[in-house]
């Protein structure tokens, strides 16, 4: 019996990925902070899809958390052939207006937890003839986003890290993909502290988390390097490749400024 481990599985894109995989008969290991929400989701998935589901409630922004997750998997003999590094968030506002501690906590989750969990679970993933890593970055990975400067930089890190290990792992059976959603209807904007005006702007372009998850899981199983859900998001990413950087950064700045 093998499992997919999903971080940030209690809501949003991670929850939708859990639903998408459960619907395909995949057993799940759900990881996030909210124990009650995770247990409710666990019971619902078992009832609807007849799959095995376990969860671990843990704050993944703690430096020791990825090792504790790995220890949990080992002590329960969970055989993992899918790892979805999804948990993450943004902090909206001018760089200097957000505390350094808050910046560092976000970078731990968005970047270091992805690295540490991947490092810890890679030996397990390599035991299987075919296994998958799906790291969740963002369309923000393709350019600087003023007022989300560190967030966008953290997602660029995830994108390049993913592409790097993808090539390193060629021939091992471990397929590595990067999901780069654009605006998606989740708690992201609330957690980021964005103004209502920006939330309204973001909503006009937003995809559903279900659509993002469906496209992401399909791309992962199709061994795609980068998965950009939605035609508009594909066009925006393509534009960042041929428009001058100051143009796309100015557009992002106007979109996200207070
Ligand atoms: N929504 C969007 O517009 C976009 C989102 N993304 C990315 O998608 C990913 C998922 O975000 P999204 O679903 O939108 O956001 P949500 O805020 O809706 O969900 C975030 C998930 O991560 C979990 N999480 C947050 N902090 C922690 C933590 N410290 N430890 C453990 N789990 C944590 C939350 O669970 P809990 O609160 O229970 O801990 C929740 O399950 C993120 O990496 C985000 O950067 C990328 C592009 C666009
Ligand atoms: N909502 C943001 C997350 O990454 C974005 O789409 O830029």
Automatic annotation (TrEMBL):
Residues 2-186 form the Ketoreductase domain. The keyword Transcription does not apply. GO terms for molecular function: 3-hydroxypropionate dehydrogenase (NADP+) activity. It catalyses: L-allo-threonine + NADP(+) = aminoacetone + CO2 + NADPH; 3-hydroxypropanoate + NADP(+) = 3-oxopropanoate + NADPH + H(+). Its EC number is 1.1.1.298, 1.1.1.381. Keywords: Oxidoreductase. InterPro entries: KR_dom, NAD(P)-bd_dom_sf, Sc_DH/Rdtase_CS, SDR_fam. It comes from the Bacteria. Belongs to the short-chain dehydrogenases/reductases (SDR) family. NADP-dependent dehydrogenase with broad substrate specificity acting on 3-hydroxy acids. Catalyzes the NADP-dependent oxidation of L-allo-threonine to L-2-amino-3-keto-butyrate, which is spontaneously decarboxylated into aminoacetone. Also acts on D-threonine, L-serine, D-serine, D-3-hydroxyisobutyrate, L-3-hydroxyisobutyrate, D-glycerate and L-glycerate. Able to catalyze the reduction of the malonic semialdehyde to 3-hydroxypropionic acid. This is NADP-dependent 3-hydroxy acid dehydrogenase YdfG.
């Amino acid at each position: 019996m093998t499992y997919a481990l999903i971080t940030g599985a209690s809501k949003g894109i991670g929850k939708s990925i859990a639903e998408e995989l459960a619907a395909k008969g995949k057993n799940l290991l759900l990881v996030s902070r909210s124990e009650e929400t995770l247990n409710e989701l666990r019971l619902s998935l078992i009832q609807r899809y007849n799959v095995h589901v376990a969860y671990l409630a843990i704050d993944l922004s703690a430096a020791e958390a990825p090792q504790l997750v790995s220890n949990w998997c080992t002590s329960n003999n969970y055989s993992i052939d899918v790892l979805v590094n999804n948990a993450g968030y943004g902090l909206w506002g001018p760089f200097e207006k957000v505390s350094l501690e808050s910046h560092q906590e976000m970078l731990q989750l968005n970047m270091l937890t992805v690295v540490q969990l991947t490092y810890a679970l890679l030996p397990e993933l390599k035991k299987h003839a075919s296994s998958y890593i799906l790291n969740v970055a963002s369309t923000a990975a393709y350019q600087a986003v003023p007022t989300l400067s560190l967030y966008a930089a953290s997602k660029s890190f995830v994108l390049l890290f993913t592409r790097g290990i993808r090539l390193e792992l060629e021939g091992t059976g471990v397929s590595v993909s990067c999901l780069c959603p654009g605006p998606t209807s989740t708690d992201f904007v609330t957690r980021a502290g964005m103004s209502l005006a920006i939330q309204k702007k973001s909503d006009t372009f937003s995809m559903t988390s279900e659509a993002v998850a469906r496209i992401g899981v399909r791309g992962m199983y199709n061994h795609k390097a980068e998965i950009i859900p939605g035609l508009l998001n594909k066009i925006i990413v393509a534009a960042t490749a041929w428009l001058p950087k100051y143009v796309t950064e100015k557009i992002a700045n106007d979109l996200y400024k207070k």
